[in-house]
Every structure is written in structure tokens, then in C-alpha cells.
Amino acid sequence: MSLLSDISELLQKGKSKEVRELCQKALKQGFPAEEILNEGLIRGMDVVGDKFKRDEVYVPEVLIATRAMKSGIETLEPYLTAGKKETHGTVVIGTVKGDLHDIGKNLVKIMMEGKGLIVIDLGIDVAPEKFISVAEEQNAPLIIACSALLTTTMIEMENLVKAAGEAGIRDRVTIMIGGAPVTDTFCESIGADVYAPDAYSAAHVAVEICSGNRKYAVS
Ligand code: B1M
Questions:
Q1: pLDDT, tens digit (0-9, with 9 covering 90-100), for 60-81
Q2: Parallel/antiparallel/unpaired status of strands 118-121 and 142-147
Q3: Ligand 1 neighbours by CB, cut-off 6 Å
Q4: Which helix (H) or strand (E) holds 36?
């Protein structure tokens, strides 16, 4: 079995220490950090997710897999963010109200910081009002980036768009959304500005927006 599938297997078993060691080994062997993340860690978490859906594993098993995922990401982080760092703008990020999933959101944060953006992380279960009050304290260019993993919490993204309008800041913020159930069509339907399917594209598009190369915010 290859090193990356070993990482995936160990993550599924929640073996944090072993996942960390194998990530280090893979880096030493020259695997790019992105490949270890996608083909090892995320692939393993997807298997856990499928088993979770079929009731073959339960919340405790998912939580120990999450811990292993986090230890892998921690090991890869310096390699994911290596490179030229320039400050282009500020991003206020969080997982929407009612939603406790933060692995994807944390990856988006890591990638954005790696590109030199200033990221204010509001954590999980963030109400629209909280996003707005923190955004109001910042100067443009500003992106509000929110993540949702549950179909039941996606509605909070629409509430955020409305709240930004009501607070009178809609014309100076770009609202970026993402997370497994979120789509481009959903983004358009709620009047958000940009959908990013993964952490890399989220960071790339954020830099484009903050550099003035792309404009999404509506006036
Ligand atoms: Co939850 N969970 N979970 N869970 N969980 C899912 C999401 C689920 C799909 C599992 C399943 O049924 N197959 C399902 C949702 C079904 C649905 O709504 N359609 C589900 C459920 C039902 C639940 C509970 C309701 C279960 C229960 O209690 N009965 C409960 C809800 C709790 C709550 O939030 N209120 C729950 C709880 C949990 C745990 C706490 C146990 C744990 C979370 C721990 C944590 O995050 N600290 C957990 C986990 C780990 C998962 C799965 C297995 C893995 C999620 C993950 O981290 N993936 C997940 C199944 C799955 O996704 N395969 C599942 C890896 C991560 C890198 O991917 O977050 O998608 P992801 O991020 C991607 C992209 O989406 C994107 O970038 C990343 C890749 O580069 N992205 C963005 C994410 N945010 C972005 C923002 C952007 C741009 C891109 O811009 C702003």
C-alpha cells in the first residue's frame, strides 16, 4: 500500500500520532503537501463521512478521526503556506450559525494566510450579526468568508447577505461562501458574491479580489 493510502487508513482509525509521523515521512520523501492533504487526509475523511452516513461509524469515531486530521494538517501547515507573503487585504472568516464543522474553514484560513492575507477567524457557530459587527470595524478591501457543511445551516448565508444590506455595508464587502453542500447556483440565488469550491481557489480568488483584479461586491 502507498504512503498516502496508509495516511488515509490511519486517519480513518483516528491514529493521530501515526498520521503525524507518516505526513512527516511523506514530506521527507518529497510528496507535495497539497498531494498529502488531498490524497491522504481528505480522502480518509471522505471515507469516514460515507461510513457516518451509512451509520457504520458514529460521532465519537468521527471526532477521533477529526483529531487525526487536525494533527496531519498541523504537520503540513508550514509547507502549505510556504512562499511569498504579501498583505493584500483582510478576510473575516467563520462557520455559520448552528454549524460546528471547522476543518474546511481552517484550511481556507491557512491557505489565505499563506497568500499574505490578514484573516480574522471568528470560529464556529457564527451569527450573521457577529460577521457584520466585526466587518464594520475593518477598512476595505474586505471579504466576509463563510463556511457551511450542513444543508440545514446554509440558510444562514442568505441571512448574512440580508444583514449586510440592512447594515449598509453591502457595497464595501465581498461575501464569499463555500463548504460541501454549497454551489455556485446557491451562491447566485442568495445574492452572495463568490462561491469557492475548495481552500486553494478560495485563497486565490480572495487575493484577486483584494488586489482589485476582480470585483464581486455589489453596490
Ligand atoms: Co458532520 N456531517 N455532523 N461532523 N461531518 C457531515 C458534513 C455529513 C455530510 C456526514 C454525512 O452524513 N455523510 C452530514 C451533513 C449532511 C447534510 O447536511 N447534508 C453531517 C451531519 C449530519 C452531522 C451532524 C448533524 C451529526 C449528528 O449529530 N447527528 C452533526 C452536526 C453538528 C453541527 O454542526 N451542529 C455533525 C457533527 C460532526 C462532528 C462534530 C462529529 C465532526 C466535525 C468536527 C469538526 O469539524 N471539528 C463532523 C465531521 C468531521 C463530518 C465529516 C465526516 C467530515 C467534514 C470534514 O471536515 N471534511 C462530514 C462528511 C464529509 O464531508 N465527507 C460530515 C474535510 C474538509 C477538508 O472538507 O469541510 O468540505 P470540507 O471543506 C472543503 C470544501 O468544502 C471547501 O474547502 C475544503 C477543501 O479544500 N470549503 C470552503 C469549506 N469551507 C469553505 C469556505 C469557503 C470556500 C471553500 O469560502 C468561504
A1: 999 999 999 999 999 999 998 8
A2: unpaired
A3: 42, 45-46, 48-49, 52-53, 59, 62-63, 66, 98-105, 107-108, 145-147, 149-152, 176-181, 196, 198-199, 202
A4: none
Indicate whether 101 and 124 sit together in one domain.
yes
Beta-bridge partners for 175:
144
- Radius of gyration of the chain from Cα atoms? 18
If asked whether residues 96 and 131 sit together in one domain, one would say: yes
Joined grid coordinates for residue 177: 461562501
Residues 74 and 175 in one domain: no
Last residue of a domain, one of 27, 61, 81: 81
Q: Tell me which residue range forms the domain holding 7.
A: 2-81
Model's pTM, two decimal places?
0.94
Total domain count, the chain: 2
| Dihedral angle computed from the Cα positions of residues 205, 105, 98 and 196, in that order, rounded to the nearest 10 degrees | 30
Quick: pLDDT tens for 13-65.
999 999 999 999 999 999 999 999 999 999 999 999 999 999 999 999 999 99
Task: Name the closest-CA residue to atom 23, ligand 1.
Answer: 150
Residue 156 has which C-alpha cell? 444562514
Distant-in-sequence, close-in-space partners of 195: CB < 8 Å, separation ≥ 6: 176, 177, 178, 182, 183, 184, 186, 187
Strand order in 173-178's β-sheet? Answer: 118-121, 90-95, 142-147, 173-178, 194-195
Residue 212 grid cell: 482589485
Say if residue 206 is in the same domain as residue 187.
yes
81, 103, 118 - which closes a domain: 81
SS3 154: coil
